């Protein structure tokens, strides 16, 4: 009987969709963000804007939405070597991973989320990691999350569950899930106020704000385009519906 959840909430498209998913499925939901020395503070600002709009536009969710927490983990920035924490161009590394990969970030985030959930009496950790659109990040894999759940359960002596609603969804499917959860109002909120761009740019596009060139923007834009493609003609299903 899991009724209380903690959503790892960055203010981006994926975590906003995960928050809507949690608010639909759990009686009490809290949010957790991290200040890890990321280059652009716009991500942290977007979190607050999205939370405010969710409370205002979705009163049936507002009653379930509890406190927001932000933890400072700038030790990640001290480790360095990532284009998300240092002013370096986005590129592929010799190990085949993009330098947007912040080693250990999600592992640390899940550990801290588990500790906070322990103290707050929360039973489910909700995160937007995905194997469908994960840019090759090993800490977004299903196996990683299963291993983290086992480690947290053993280390905390609690029956915590890690929920990954987007694990097998590409970006087009994430847009569709958001629409199913909150209709056009949630789509508009994600487009206008969430932030995913690695460059911290807020140039408006049909799919949201961003530079339009970084990998995060390209994934988001291509998912938007696929989501808007007309469906093939099928019996009993009109084209374009």
Defining traits:
241 residues, alpha/beta, Rossmann fold, 5-stranded parallel sheet, two-stranded antiparallel ribbon, 8 helices, 7 strands, 44% helix, 13% strand, globular, disordered C terminus
Fold topology:
Layout lengths: L3 E5 L4 H13 L2 E8 L6 H16 L1 H4 L2 E8 L2 H5 L25 H16 L3 E3 L15 H15 L4 E3 L7 H23 L10 E2 L2 E2 L5 H13 L14
Parallel strand pairs: 1-2, 1-4, 2-3, 4-5
Antiparallel strand pairs: 6-7
Word description of this protein:
By secondary structure, the chain is α/β, with parallel strands linked by helices. It has one domain: Rossmann fold, CATH 3.40.50. Helices cover 44% and strands 13% of the residues. It is built from eight helices and seven strands. It has helices spanning 13-25, 42-57, 59-62, 75-79, 105-120, 142-156, 171-193, 215-227; strands spanning 4-8, 28-35, 65-72, 124-126, 161-163, 204-205, 208-209. The protein has a five-stranded parallel beta sheet, sandwiched between helices. Strands 6-7 form a two-stranded antiparallel ribbon. β6 (204-205) and β7 (208-209) form a beta hairpin. The model is unreliable at 233-241 (pLDDT under 50).
């Amino acid at each position: 009987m899991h009724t209380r959840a903690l959503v790892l909430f960055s203010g981006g498209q994926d975590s906003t969709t995960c928050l809507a998913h949690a608010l639909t499925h759990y009686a009490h939901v809290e949010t957790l963000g991290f200040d890890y020395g990321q280059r652009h503070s716009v991500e942290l600002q977007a979190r607050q804007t999205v939370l405010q709009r969710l409370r205002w536009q979705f009163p049936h969710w507002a009653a379930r939405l509890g406190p927001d927490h932000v933890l400072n983990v700038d030790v990640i920035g001290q480790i360095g070597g990532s284009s998300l924490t240092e002013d370096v161009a986005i590129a592929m590394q010799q190990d085949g991973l993009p330098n947007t990969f912040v080693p250990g970030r999600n592992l640390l985030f899940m550990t801290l989320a588990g500790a906070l959930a322990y103290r707050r009496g929360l039973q489910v950790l909700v995160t937007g990691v995905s194997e469908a659109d994960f840019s090759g990040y090993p800490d977004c894999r299903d196996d990683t999350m299963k291993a983290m759940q086992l480690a947290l359960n053993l280390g905390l002596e609690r029956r915590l569950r890690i929920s990954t609603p987007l694990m097998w969804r590409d970006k087009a499917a994430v847009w569709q899930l958001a629409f199913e959860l909150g209709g056009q109002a949630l789509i508009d909120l994600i487009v206008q106020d969430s932030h995913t761009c690695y460059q911290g740019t807020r140039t408006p596009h049909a799919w949201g704000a961003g530079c339009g060139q970084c990998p995060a923007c390209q994934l988001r834009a291509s998912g938007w385009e696929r989501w808007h493609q007309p469906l093939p003609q099928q019996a009993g299903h009109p084209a374009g519906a």
